Amino acid sequence: MTQTKTKFTGGISHEEYTPEVLLNPFVHRLELDTTYEKIKTYILTVILLPIRVSLICFFVITGWIFASIGLWGLTEEELRQKPLEGWRKKMKHVVCMLGWCSLRAGGLIVTVKGRQADRREAPILVAAPHSTFIDGGIVYITGFPSTICRRESGANNHIGKLINFTQPVYVWRDDPDSRHNTIREIVQRATSDLDWPQILIFPEGTCTNRSCLITFKPGAFYPGVPVQPVCIRYPNRLDTVTWTWEGPSALKLLWLTLTQPYSNCEIEFLPVYYPSEEEKQDPKLFANNVRAVMAKALGIPVTDYTYNDCKLMKKAKEMNLPFAPSLVEVRKLRNRLGLDKNNIEETLVNSTVTCRDCSKISYMEFVSLLNIPSNNMSAHQLFKIYDKENTGMIDFRDYLLGIYDRTGYGRLSPEDFCKAVCQTLALSKEYALEVFDQADRNQLGYITFDFSVK
């Protein structure tokens, strides 16, 4: 590990270890750096883009027509009660072929590795990492499996027929019991004796930049049935497909992708994962173990980021909070340093005098106040988050502002939760309490920092 001498204000010096980079999977940077890339893009925009858009529209519209024919005479209730049969089921092969043609028309070259298991072997396909809207094209490669999607998408006049033809499991946003109903339907489909399509699920729940695998939501693992992991890669020199919370817009990505001569996509079917009895009883353990297998195959690490984390960072950014992108990193580093298990910060928050001038404290003062080792790499990273200008000084009040857990056990009471979100995210107290009640479904009187409903 590289070591360098660093001198801080006040003549204090210490050994500083070069910190490892904290991954932020929700950020993607894309720029056309060279003149060649810019000229090529402009030329292909004029010559290639209109042709590709025309071909894609033709195949999508034709697929929509065939999907409409396949759904003719069926109600939504009938679609949810039993799988398609006879000529309707055969029509799905035609739609898949047209969908595959639309991908090829867009310049996407798909390479398939491994063997896709059938429904009897693995009722559920688990795909990751989820990094782009193009991932949706995997349904054409996998035989039009059922997906998990919002009800609003199925009601869309343009793509609703194509979505409904997969017989998806719908999520109803306006239904407070939507999550539980969705899980119940997944379990029923996965364990049914009827010939339902396989269910395709992206367990990360949001798009990332493929630098790691974030926490898998347990929905795909509640049935306790065998699942087949499906790894997705985009081995391209210029990454024009990655769509994250912070980065190029979908329209820009679509434009740049369609103006590339071609784009590569690799889909790898890993061996079917059969859960142990312990995993069948613990969906989160099942999810974590499958994620570990996929991360090993992909050659990337796993992190404990969640969908809620990226929503929090996005909201904080909208509120122009100075350390918005780093909220989750702070929580992770505090956990590594053991600060979430003691009451040092609670004491500091309640103390009237913590330092001579809390608006300017050095690194050595920082570690002294928190009683953590000065040569700890995580301590350096935590300080660095607040030292954006590399002055060697931070405002300690900014740090303490984020410490709302007065219990010291990683739990937030209604009062602490309201204080946190009202001050940092500018929510009203009434709305904050409403969010708290929704998160605390078991009426425990507290929620954890990872306040996903259990």
Automatic annotation (TrEMBL):
<keyword id="KW-0808">Transferase</keyword>
<comment type="pathway">
    <text>Phospholipid metabolism.</text>
</comment>
<dbReference type="GO" id="GO:0005783">
    <property type="term" value="C:endoplasmic reticulum"/>
</dbReference>
<dbReference type="InterPro" id="IPR045252">
    <property type="entry name" value="LPCAT1-like"/>
</dbReference>
<feature type="domain" description="Phospholipid/glycerol acyltransferase">
    <location>
        <begin position="124"/>
        <end position="235"/>
    </location>
</feature>
<dbReference type="GO" id="GO:0042171">
    <property type="term" value="F:lysophosphatidic acid acyltransferase activity"/>
</dbReference>
<keyword id="KW-1208">Phospholipid metabolism</keyword>
<comment type="pathway">
    <text>Lipid metabolism; phospholipid metabolism.</text>
</comment>
<dbReference type="GO" id="GO:0016020">
    <property type="term" value="C:membrane"/>
</dbReference>
<keyword id="KW-0012">Acyltransferase</keyword>
<keyword id="KW-0443">Lipid metabolism</keyword>
<dbReference type="GO" id="GO:0008374">
    <property type="term" value="F:O-acyltransferase activity"/>
</dbReference>
<dbReference type="GO" id="GO:0008654">
    <property type="term" value="P:phospholipid biosynthetic process"/>
</dbReference>
<dbReference type="InterPro" id="IPR002123">
    <property type="entry name" value="Plipid/glycerol_acylTrfase"/>
</dbReference>
<protein>
    <recommendedName>
        <fullName>Phospholipid/glycerol acyltransferase domain-containing protein</fullName>
    </recommendedName>
</protein>
<comment type="similarity">
    <text>Belongs to the 1-acyl-sn-glycerol-3-phosphate acyltransferase family.</text>
</comment>
<keyword id="KW-1133">Transmembrane helix</keyword>
<keyword id="KW-0444">Lipid biosynthesis</keyword>
<dbReference type="Pfam" id="PF01553">
    <property type="entry name" value="Acyltransferase"/>
</dbReference>
<feature type="transmembrane region" description="Helical">
    <location>
        <begin position="42"/>
        <end position="74"/>
    </location>
</feature>
<keyword id="KW-0812">Transmembrane</keyword>
<keyword id="KW-0472">Membrane</keyword>
<keyword id="KW-0594">Phospholipid biosynthesis</keyword>
<dbReference type="InterPro" id="IPR011992">
    <property type="entry name" value="EF-hand-dom_pair"/>
</dbReference>
